[in-house]
Amino acid sequence: MTSRKETDAKVVLFDGVCILCNASVDFIVRHEKDDELKFASLQSDFGKSLIKKTGIETVPDSILFYCKGELFTKSKAVLHVCRYLTFPLNLLRIFTIIPTSLADLIYEWIAKNRYKWFGKKETCRIPTAEEQNKFLA
Fold first, then answer.
1. What distance in Å separates the CA atoms of residue 49 and residue 43, rounded to the nearest whole number?
2. Where are the domains of the chain?
3. How many angstroms separate the CA atoms of 71 and 19, rounded?
């Protein structure tokens, strides 16, 4: 059962078997400024239920960002996450000036090739003991 606290959280949803996505989660955890973000794999029951709750039918399978009842996908997800990073990484938000259609094309190209370039794991990422409170599922 999904608790109210969990669905009010700012949640980064990621492909748990994608090595690039897992490296991205590690990077975010290390560079997050205020410890506000939570994480869940797309393959988890929590991830699936959160996506279903938003009503989006076609979901990209790499990184998504859920905040205040809205699910951001593709480049918008990545750029929204940037605002929670430490300086100067949070300045990456400047790329919101790029038209979303162009930014999404770049995102889709990377997402399409991520398994070929970076590989794939057999199982989802297991959080360390220190990270347990950051992961919802």
1. 10
2. 4-130
3. 22
Q: How far apart are CA 132 and CA 106, in angstroms?
A: 32
Coil, strand or helix: which one is 78? helix
The rounded distance, in Å, linking the Cα atoms of 105 and 41 is 23
Report the chain's terminal Cα–Cα distance, integer Å.
11
pTM of the model: 0.82
CATH 3.40.30 fits 4-130, yes or no: yes
Q: What are the tens digits of pLDDT across the range 42-94?
A: 888 888 888 888 877 777 667 899 988 888 989 999 999 999 999 998 888 88
- Strand 10-14 to strand 37-41: parallel, antiparallel, or no bridges (unpaired)? parallel
> Which residue's structure tokens are 């669905």?
7
Token reading at 50: 């959160």
| Pairing verdict, β 70-72 and 10-14 | unpaired
